[in-house]
Amino acid sequence: MMSTTSKLLKKLYCVLGEKSEGNTVSEFLDYLFGDEELAKELVFQGERREGVVGELQTRIKKGGKSVEGIKIIKNAEGKNVFILDNSNLSYVSDVTVKFLIEATKIKLEFFKKKTSSN
Fold this sequence. Notes:
This protein has 118 residues and is an alpha+beta fold.
């Protein structure tokens, strides 16, 4: 079973893929609470578990394989912003490998189009 922090990281990659200028922490939290399934995991005894995003920030700042391709920068207002680091070739390679593994698990098949020779 995937941890909440891992689910947030996965969601962060998706969000940043759609929004190249990045997301502030508060924008990301708003997005997360808009997701019904994740929102359930982000509330404990009626309180928002915003510290989970803090854990994610710490993980990103420390670096490592699990967070390759994401950086945190300060914007003009001094707020932390999550951004994708698209120049990281190993990140692209790892994501591709993970996708292919997942595609294989669901038995996704690739068909080569037959061409006729004349």
